[in-house]
Specification:
Blueprint lengths: L10 E4 L7 H4 L5 E5 L4 H4 L2 H9 L3 E5 L8 H13 L4 E7 H13 L8 H5 L11 E7 L9 E6 L4 E6 L7 E4 L9 H19 L7 H23 L4 H14 L13 H13 L3 H15 L5 H10 L8 H18 L16 H10 L13 H10 L2
Parallel strand pairs: 1-8, 2-3, 2-4, 4-5, 5-8
Antiparallel strand pairs: 6-7
């Protein structure tokens, strides 16, 4: 096992009716800004529930945060925070709203020039941030219990990530019943997103980390079992609770301790989203199967472990089991309603040069757990994904 530091201060409040506990975790004298997305929380009653729980606190709101939050929109949010002297942020939504809140929390107190510098330095220049909490309504990204975020700058088609210990939520409220009204597309996206988060931390090379491996495999098997049930019966509380906790556990730092991490699929996926507007999970479902096929020799030991422990594949030689595991993975994404080829989204080989150029411009030229995913490997992955 590799050396590691583990730190996660986020307080999780899980279960039905936990929004009422906002009164216990938000300071009584806080000037609160509620951040949200397209407005569904006003239609389904969540917004009113939040306002009621906040009581007499001074509350402002900022809505309209995009599914892939843009720097341009967040600049307006930062201005609102500073103008109104907001001192506590509350994200109500999914990963995009929570990521946005992390960026606003850091940028509102940033003294290093234009806030975009936070993305350029990957968050290493953050020295402080406003306190914030989250109410999760769309489980997928795990942003409710980690310190990372992704923001897109529309003017230059750049989707960049950052990470900082100053950007952990103080608390996150997870009520599975608030996910009942999600569209089927978002249920599928969420399960696939969480699944690939685990894969990026698990499917690398062995370092004698059985605890982390078993945790990861348990999350993967739970997603495989519970994901399709949520498509059939979206209001099954137990199923939605399991999926919600899977998504949180997939990216809160527990399974990444002491193990190598990949993230090449994510870096290519970010460029697909920035250039073509695809959902994050869609890009990952397109890239991962091809990434595994191209790199199956480098990942052979863990792929064989994955085939046996997650998919119960024990027959045939090594190559047969590896190929079957990758195919099972791809079939799971399709079962969840997330298509796995560029052509499914009306994209063809003509899109590949621009994606490669963007990877090069963002210095994503040696990716993966061994930094052996060169531009040529990325090109091969994209071509195989057609």
């Amino acid at each position: 096992m590799l050396n590691f530091d583990f730190y996660n201060p986020t307080h999780i409040l899980f279960g039905k009716g936990r929004i009422a506990d906002l009164n216990k975790v938000v300071p009584l004298d806080a000037k609160v800004l509620i951040l949200y997305g397209g407005g569904s929380i006003k239609k389904n009653g969540v917004f009113d529930e939040v306002k009621l729980a906040l009581g007499e606190r001074q509350v402002s709101e900022f809505g309209g945060i995009e599914p892939n939050p843009t720097y341009e929109t967040l600049l307006a949010t930062i201005e609102l925070v500073n103008t109104n002297k907001i001192d506590f942020l509350l994200a109500v939504g999914g990963g995009s709203v929570i990521d946005s809140t992390k960026f606003v929390a850091a940028a509102a107190l940033f003294e290093g020039g234009e806030p975009w510098a936070i993305l350029e330095k990957r968050g290493n220049n953050i020295s402080k941030a406003l306190p914030f909490g989250t109410i999760l309504t769309l489980p997928a990204t795990g942003s409710e219990m980690n310190s990372g975020a992704v923001v897109t700058r529309r003017s230059i088609n750049a989707k960049m990530s950052f990470n900082s210990r100053h950007c952990f939520p103080q608390f996150s409220i997870l009520d599975p019943s608030k996910t009942f009204t999600l569209p089927i597309r978002q249920i599928g996206n969420g399960a696939v997103d969480a699944f690939i988060h685990v894969i990026e931390q698990y499917l690398t090379y062995p370092v004698n980390s059985p605890v982390q491996d078993r945790f990861a495999e348990g999350i993967l098997k739970t997603l495989i079992e519970e994901g399709p049930k949520a498509l059939v019966n979206p209001e099954d509380y137990d199923v939605r609770a399991n999926l919600m906790w899977c998504a949180t556990m997939a990216l809160n730092g527990v399974i990444s301790t002491g193990v190598p991490q990949d993230w090449a699929t994510h870096m290519i996926g970010h460029e697909l989203t920035a250039l073509h507007g695809l959902d994050h999970a869609q890009t990952l479902a397109i890239i991962l199967p091809s990434m595994l096929r191209i790199r199956k020799d480098a990942k052979r030991e863990k792929l064989l472990q994955y085939a046996e422990r997650v998919w119960d594949l024990r027959d045939g030689n090594d190559d047969i089991r590896i190929d079957a595991a990758i195919k099972h993975t791809q079939n799971f994404f399709e079962q969840m309603g997330v298509k796995t080829h560029l052509s499914d989204y009306a994209l063809n080989a003509e899109c590949i040069p621009a994606i490669l150029s963007a990877l090069e411009a963002h210095r994503m030229v040696s990716l993966g757990e061994r930094r052996d995913v060169t531009m040529d490997i990325s090109r091969q992955v994209l071509e195989l994904s057609l």
